[in-house]
Fold this protein.
Amino acid sequence: MNRRSFVAGLIPALSFSQAKKDADKLAPYYPTPESIVIKMLEMVELKKGEKMFDLGSGDGRIVIVAARKFKARAVGVEFDRDLVKQSADRIEKLGLSKTAQIIHGDIMEQDYSSADVLTVYLLPLSNDKVRPMLEKQLKKGTRIVAHDFEFSGWTPEKVQHIDDDGEGRSHTLYLYRR
Ligand SMILES: C[S@@+](CC[C@H](N)C(=O)[O-])C[C@H]1O[C@@H](n2cnc3c(N)ncnc32)[C@H](O)[C@@H]1O
C-alpha cells in the first residue's frame, strides 16, 4: 500500500470514530454550579462511606464535593480526556485519591450495581437511554438525583425547585429511589 492510499484509507476511519463519539455523547459539558451540587447531595442524603457515581462527571466537581464534604466513596465517569485529567489532577492535589476516582470511559459501559447513590445531569433523551441499563443494574434502594431533566417513566419521590442559584439561573432537582 502506498502512502497516498494509506492516508486515504484513514479518512473514513477517522470520521467513523468521530461519528461514533458524537453518537455516544449523552450531553455537552455544562457544569452544575457548586451551590446546586451541595443541594443535590443533601437532597439525596449522601452519607459517609456510601458509594456514589456521577454519570458524566465533567470537571469532577460533584465527585470532589461528595468525597470532601460528605466523606463518600465517589466515582465519576467521563469520556472527555481533558476533563478527566483536570479532575484527576484536582483530586490528587486535594489529597482525595483514596475516596475519589474518575473512570475514563463511556457511561453506558460501566457497572453501577455497587452504587448507593447516582447523580445525573444529562439530556432528557439520554436519561431515556440510560434508564433501562440502570433498571437492570441498580440494587434495590439506590437513590438517584437528577438535575434539571427528569426520568420519564419513573416517579420522583421529591422535586425541588430553586428559583435563583445566585447567578440568576433556576434549577429543578428530582429524587428517585429504585
Ligand atoms: C452536563 S455535563 C455534567 C457534568 C457534571 N456531572 C456536573 O454536573 O457538573 C455532562 C458530562 O457528561 C459527559 N458525557 C457525555 N456523554 C458521555 C458518555 N457517553 N460517557 C461519559 N461521559 C459522557 C460530558 O463530556 C460532560 O462532561
About this structure: The CA atoms of residues 92 and 100 lie 9 Å apart. The chain has one domain: 27-177.
